Structures
1.
Amino acid sequence: MTEHIHHTLRHATKLRTIDVHSTKRMTPHMQRIVFTGTELHGFFSAAPDDHVKLFFPNADGELVLPTLGPNGPEFAAGLSPSPARDYTPRDYDRQRNALTIDFVIHGDGPASTWAERAQPGQRIGLGGPRGSFMPARDFDHYVLIGDETALPAIGRQLDEWPAGMNVYVIVEIAEKADRLPLGSQADFHVTWLERDGTPAGQSTLLEQALRQWPFPPGDTFYWIAAESHRTRAMRKYLSDERHIPSDWIRAKGYWKSADAQDRDD
C-alpha cells in the first residue's frame, strides 16, 4: 500500500477587526461578502479547507472581542460576548487586501441573519486560521462530498488544485437554483443533489450517492463536510464497510442538526 504524506501547518493566532466592502447574493441561499481593513494586512490561509472564526455584534449591537490569554480566548467581565461562528476563507487577494467569505443563508442564527443584512462599512471580528491541512497530492483520485456549507471549501479546492488531478465532487443543495459555477485546472466532475424541501438534517442523498460510488481502482482520498451526524456516518461507512484507511479520509462536521440526533453514528 502506497504511503501518502499529508502536511499540517500551525499558525500564530491573531484577532483582527474587518470591514464589509461589498455584498452579493450568489444564489437563493448563498451570500458572498468581501471584507477589507487595515488589520487584514498579513492575513494568510494556506489550505482550501481552513477555517476562521468570525465574531458578530451581540444583542446590544456591540462588537465584543476576546483577548488571547494563557488559557485561550477570554472575554471581559460584565460584557456580553460577540457570538462567533467558523467559516472558510473563500479567497484572499493580497494585492487588494480583500477577503471573500461565502455565507449560507438559512433564516436563523446570528451569522446568517447578520450576513443577509450586511452593508458596506459594517465591522466584525476575525480570528485565525490556527492551522492548515494539506492532503498528499499523489492519490489517483480525490472525492469531495458535502452539503451547501461545504461549497466554499470545495470551490476553493477546485480553484487551487492543478492539472492532472482527478476530482469527483458530490454536492447536496436545497434546490437547483443553489448551484454555483465551479471551475478548475484539475480534471473534475460534479454531481448535484437537490433536497427539494427535505430538511438538510433529514436528507440521505449524500449517503446514498456515496454507497453508489463506483470506487475505481487505485488510491482515493475522501474529503467530507456536512452535518456532523451525517459526516460521521459516511466516515464510518468508508472505514468499516469499504475498509478505506483512516488517513485517506478527512471528514469534518460543519454544523449540527436536531433532526439528526436520533441517527446511528
2.
Amino acid sequence: MSERVVLAYSGGLDTSVAIPYLADQIGGEVIAVALDVGQGGEDMEVIRQRALDCGAAESIVVDARDEFAADFCLPALRANALYMDRYPLVSALSRPLIVRHLVEAAKRHGGTVVSHGCTGKGNDQVRFEVGIGALAPDLKVIAPARDFAWTRDKAIALAEEKGLPIDVSHKSPYSIDQNLWGRAVETGFLEDIWNAPIEDIYSYTQDPSAPRDPDEVVITFDQGNPVAIDGETVTPYQAITELNRRAGDQGVGRLDMVEDRLVGIKSREVYEAPGAIALIAAHQELENVTVERDLARFKRSVDQRWGELVYDGLWFSPLKNALDAFIADSQKHVTGEVRLVLHGGRATVTGRRSEASLYDFGMATYDTGDTFDQSLAKGFVQLWGLPSRMASARDARLAD
C-alpha cells in the first residue's frame, strides 16, 4: 500500500513544489492542508485550487481564525507571553494549531507521513515535529527543504520542469510570516544587525512619528479575556482585529530585536504586533489591580516560562498544560476595564477600574480619610529586618 502524505501547505513556491516532489519520492498521494490564521494575502480558494493544480490528491482549506484567536492568542494574552520580555510569540502560536489540523487530516484520510516546508536553521521545524510527535507519535515526518538539501534554484527548476502554476519571477528580499497576532520579517539587508529597518518593510503599522491625534480606547476584560471594546461586545477574533487596526494606525507594536533561537543561533527579527502589544499592556495593568501580591510575583515567573515553552515548540508538553491550569486559576478576578491611549507608537494605560480591585483608596491616600494604622509600621519594620540585622551582627562578630 502506497503512503499518503499530509502536507502543511502555504501556497508558496516551496510547498507547491513539494507536492510533485513528495509524490515522486514516496510514490503516494499528497493531501495539502492550508489554514487561514488571519494572515491575509491571497484568497484561500485560490490557494486550495493551486494545490490541486500542482498535483495534490486532495486540498483542504480551514478557516481557523476564530479558533486561533480563542485557543491560542488568548492563552498567550492571559500569560502576558513575551519571549525575551519583548516578542509576543507570533509564529510560535500558529504552529501548534497547524499541527492539530495536520494530525486530524492524517487520521481522517489515512495519512502515514506529515510534511512541512521548514529548513534546518529555524525554530518551526521543532514546533511542527515535536507537536506531531506529541499528538501522533506513529506518524513519520519529512521536511524536503531540510532533508533533501533544497535550494531556491532547485525549487524553481523543478517548478519549471513540472509546469507548475507558480510565478517564480518575483523574489522578496525578506522572509515574512504573519497571522492575526502579528507579523515577522527577517533576512535580506536585515541580516546586518547594524542596518536600521526601513519603512517599506512594515505592513501592520503606520509610521509612529507621523503627526496624528491620539486614540483613546477602553478594553473590558472578563477573567483575563477581552470581551468588549469601548462598550461594544466583541469575540476574541474581533478584539484582536480591532486593536490591530487602531493600535497599528498609531504605530504601536514595532519591535526590532536579536533573539535567541532554539537551535542555538542568534537571529535578527523585526516584528509588528499592534493588537498583541496593546492587549498585553492592558491585561498586565488589570492584573496589577486585581491579583494579590505574592500570586502576582509568582505568576510573572510562570508567564516567562510559559512563553519559553511555547517558543521552544512545547505547546503540548505536560509542563505547559500544568502552567495553563495555574494561569487559569490566577485569572478568576481579572475582570474590569482598562483605558489606553494609543499614540506615537505607544500604548499607555491612563485608567483602570474593577469590582474585584484590591486597590483601597482609604489605605492608599495620604490625605483626609486615611484608614491605614501607621502605628503598626514601626514594629513591622523591626521584625521584617530582624534576620538581616542578626546576620550582620554575626558577620561582624566572626570578622573580629
3.
Amino acid sequence: MAAFKFFRLGEKTRKILFLFVLVVFLSLNALSYLGAYVLTHYSSSGHWGLGIPKSTSSTIPSDIGLEYVTQRIPINQTEWLETWFIPTQMPVSSGTVLLFPGNAGSKAIQLLAPAKAFHHLGYDTLLIDFRGLGGSSGNTTTLGVREAKDVAIALNHAQHLNFQRPFILYGVSMGSAAILKAVADEKVNPDAVILELPFARLLDAVRSRLRANWIPPFPIAEMIVFWGSIQHGINGFTHNPVNYAKQVQCPALLLHGKLDKWITLAEIDHIFQNLQGSKELTIFPNADHSLLVTVDKELWQQSVEQFLKGV
C-alpha cells in the first residue's frame, strides 16, 4: 500500500523524497564510517589525526616500588609488543600472570594496580601492550579480534623462555575478550584465566555505548560494526566472546561490576554459563565499568587469591 501511494505522488515529489532518502542514507554511512575509524584508530602525541589519543607510559613500575625489565616481543620486521616483566621478590615464584589491557588502555594505565596485587601474592607478572597501545607498534585496534593473536604471541613467548608455571591470563574488558578468542581460535592453553569486565558481543557493546551517549543504536551500531569490519578486514558481527567461552576448559574467574552500564548482568551470566571448566563469578556491588581492584581492593584480592589457590 505504501509503495502504491508513493507511485501516485507527482514526479517532482518522488524525486524530492528519493533525494532526501539518499542524502540520509549517505550521511548515516559517512558518519558511521567516521565513527568506526575514530573508535579503532589512535592518534600519536604530537601528530594530528583522527582517533583516540594513544596511551603512553607516564607511570612505570618503579614509581610504585616494583623492579622491572622492559622487553619487546617481535612479531615481524615492523611490528612488536612492548612488555614489562616484574619478577616476584619471593624465594620461589608461584607462577606467571600475563596481563592485557582494555580498549585505549595500556600496561601503564590499567595493569600496574592488578600487577602489584599479583606481585604481593608471589607471582611473576608480564604486562603486555596490545598492538596500537602504549609502547607497542601500530595505531589501530580491532577490539579483541587481532588482539587474540597478541595474546597467543605473548603466551608463546613466556613458554619459550621457560617462565614459571602455572600460566594465568588476566584481561580487562577488551583484554578479556581477546583472551577468550585466543583460547577458542588461537588454541592457546593457559592454566587459568581471570576475565574482568568482558563484553558478550561486539555489536551489543557498540549499541550500549551509543545508548549511553543518547544516540539511537539502530541502525547506527550495525553500520559502525560493518564499516569497522571493512576498514580492518575482519567480521565484527561474529566477534562474540560469549561464544568463545564455550571453548574454555581451564579454571576461570569472572569479575564484573553490578553498576556497569555497558555490560549487563545477563550478558555476564551467559558468558559464565558457557565456560566449560571449573569457574567462579564475583560481582562487585558498587562498581561500574572501572578497574575493579581500584574500586574494591579487598573484594578483588579475596576473590583472586581464593581462585588461585585452586589453580
4.
Amino acid sequence: MSGQSITDRIAAAQHSMTGSAISKAVCKATTHEASAPKKKHLDYLMHCTNELNVNIPHLADTLFERTANQSWVVVFKALITTHHLMMYGNERFIQYLASRSTLFNLNNFVDKGALQGYDMSIYIRRYSRYLTERALSYRLVAPNKTNGSITLMKTLPIIQNQLDALLDFEASSNELTNGVINCAFTLLFKDSIRIFAAYNEGVINLLEKYFNMKKNQCKEALEIYKRFLIRMTKLSEPFFAPSSLLEALEQHLASLEGKKMKDASTVSRYLKLYWNSGCRSMTNTNVKPDE
C-alpha cells in the first residue's frame, strides 16, 4: 500500500467525469495509502463546509459511504477526515452530524485480509464510537450555554461521557505504527486538551456554587465531583513527562523550519506521555468541548 491503488485512481476519474468535486476530494482523502489524508484534500473539504451552496448532507453521506469499504485504511481515513471537519470545518457540518440518530455502523468492523488489519480494526471501532459520542455531546450541550448549577449538573456528565469515549481509544506508543493511526491519535490528543479544560472549568464552577445548593443538589454535585476525580486519576496515573512534551514541541518547530525531525512515532510517544499525564497545565484554559 505504498501508493494509490488502481481502485482509487478509477474512482477519482469517475468523479472527475461526473463533475463531483466533493466526491473526488473525499476519494483522494481516503485512498488505500497507509498514510494520513493529504492536507490539500482536507483543506479543500474544510473550505467546502464554508460554502453556502455546498450540500453538507451530501458531503457527510459521501464520507459515510467510504466507511462501508472493506479496507481498514480507507475506513480509518474516512473517520479521520470526518473528525477533521468536525474540528475545523464550519459549524454547520457538526450540526448536521449531531442531527442524525446514527453516524457509523462499525461496531463489528474487521479487516482480516490486510497487514495490520485486525489490530487497526479495533481502533476503528473505538474511534467511530468516540466520534458518535462527540456529535451527541454537541447536540446535548449546545442548548445549555449558562453556568447555573442545574445546567452544570446536566452538562458535566455529557462532557464526562465524551472524555470516557476518547480515553477508550487506548492506543499505546507501541501501537502507533503507521501514519493513519498517528493522524487519528493527534486529533484525539487535541480533543483531549479541549475536553479536559471544559470538564475542569465546569467542575470548578460547580464547586463554587456547592455551598449555596439544596441538599439534593449537593448530593448530585458531590457524585459528579467524585467521578471527576476518578477520570483525573485515570489521566494522570501512568506518568508525567513535561520534558518529553517539550522535546516533541521543539521537534515540531524544527520540522516547520526545515530542520531534521525525529521519527514521527517518537514524537507520537511523547504526545502519548503527555496525554496520560492529564494535561495538568491546562486547568485554567477557557475552551468549550466542541469549539
